[in-house]
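Please, structure for the following, as tokens.
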Amino acid sequence: MRQRLVVGNWKMNPSTLEAAVDLATRIARIDGGPIDVGIAPPHVALARVREAIGGSAVLVYAQDVHWETEGAFTGQIAAPMIAGIAAGSIVGHSEVRRDQGDDDARVARKAAAALAHGLRVIFCLGESLAQRRAGETDAVLRRQVRDGIGPLDRERATPSTLAIAYEPIWAIGTGEAATAAQATDAVARIRDELGRLGAAAGAFTVMYGGSVTGANAAEFAAAEGVDGALVGGASLKPEEFAAIVAAFR
């Protein structure tokens, strides 16, 4: 049975360390039951948040990681810097791809670096609205799996260390979520391409991300092949995040 995972990506929120610690301690009280629950605070808050909720079962993730271990990379954070603080890192989020120019090759290098330093990886992928309207969803998802996950070391990129988040770009921060049927279809394509790479496709956790709320979480929790959620804005509201967790429990 695949592990279920719900992670809140706080992005550039909240505005102070004190607020981040308060939010984390409130989320740490959520009963995840058999599913894994995680939060991804801004880098500056990682250590404080981890210290504040160290006794809880909530996992702390970084929002991104660089592929090099050190060097002249202003504003970046390396895997060794967060190993021991964070359980893992998100890579390939559409906003990072958009704002920092990450392509599939860069995302693959980031994932490889995180895995090499004992971090779990949430590997994001998804199509834009223009790509969906052009009928390119299948080709885009398969390329992102092939070129992003394909190069990873199979001994490190296992179902226990690598989760995949399908996040259609057109649903990120727009309030327009995909339907359960669209999510199911996309996840099936992702798993099929994983299988073509020789991976145990059915064993990997695949999450849905994109305007997930307490109101629609049950729809995605019931969708075939969807094992969890990568949650944006709703993860800043502990009660609503708890409702999303409960839907997948």
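The beta strands are 5-9, 36-40, 59-62, 88-91, 120-125, 162-166, 206-209, 228-231. The chain has a mean pLDDT of 96.
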